[in-house]
Amino acid sequence: MSAGLALLASVLWGSSDFLGGSVSRRLRAVQVLAVSQVLSALVLLAFLLATGRLAHVGAGAWLGWSVLAGLTWAGAMGALYTALARGTMGVVAPVASCGMLVPVAAAVLTGERPGAVALAGAALALVGVVGAAGPELSGSGRTPVAAVGLAALAALLFGVEVYALARASETSVAGALLGMRLSSLVVVVVAAAATARSAPAVAGRDLPVLLALGVLDLGATAAFALASTSGLVSVVAVLASLYPAVTILLARQVHGERLSGVQKGAVVLVLLGAVLCALG
């Protein structure tokens, strides 16, 4: 069950990243985040009220972890959407997915010892990231160096967010989702308000896409939170990080993006490394 939920989170995150990156080519990333987060927060509150779960959410150990997850999520998504809008999605998404290494590193620092297969998978993922970003860093690719740097920053923040969300979900999944959503909402709304004058207007035609984006991300977060309560965090985090495959497929089909042979092989290494981490 935990593996299935983690893979579901991967599919939903990959789809939401594609939508977010596509919309961010027309609107500012902070606008995309602010509107989609407001809409998804309303959906979450309505669900918790309708199911009676909101009444059972009290202050607990989840609070601090969920706030940390929300703050790091907001920073990660801002960096990711900007990178997706500026660069090739097939390069940016795999780089950002390497945030999976952060929970693994946290597990090692707290006493866990991953097996040889998991370590081999992590090494493959790192090699894949270098291979995917290499042509861009050398100046011969289509993705600016700044976009690769933003993707790397997103990876670090995503790793912290995933670990914090898992810790918050240990005591209350509903509380973790609510605290994360509201804390991230405050950040992105304030940032959007600060840049509102110079930003393009959000049209009515954008709202259905932004609603879909927010619901996809909310669903992915909920699936991962539930998976982390019934499985090893180091395993479900890696399985949930397979989302670049979905983003790459959608970018190829919709935007006609193409990768070089080296980059295609590198993306395969990233995904193979993730699978090995999970098996390990």
Notes on the protein architecture:
By secondary structure, the chain is mainly alpha-helical. The protein has one domain. The chain is about 80% helix and about 0% strand. The chain has helices at about 1-25, 30-50, 60-85, 90-95, 100-110, 115-135, 145-170, 175-195, 205-230, 235-240, 245-255, 260-280. Helix 1 runs antiparallel to helix 9 (about 205-230) and helix 4 (about 90-95) runs antiparallel to helix 6 (about 115-135). The longest helix has 25 residues, at about 60-85. The radius of gyration is 18 Å and the shape is globular. The chain starts with a helix and ends with a helix. It is found in: Membrane.
Name the overall outline: globular
Please mark out the parts with pLDDT under 50 across 5 or more consecutive residues, or reply none. Answer: none
Structural class: mainly alpha
Euclidean distance between termini CA atoms: 18 Å
Output the number of helix runs: 12
Major sheet characteristics: none
**Percent range of helical residues:** over 70%
Q: How much of the polypeptide forms β-strand, as a percent range? A: under 5%
| Tally of discrete structural domains | 1
Radius of gyration: 18 Å
What is the averaged pLDDT score? 81
List the secondary-structure elements in sequence, H or E: HHHHHHHHHHHH
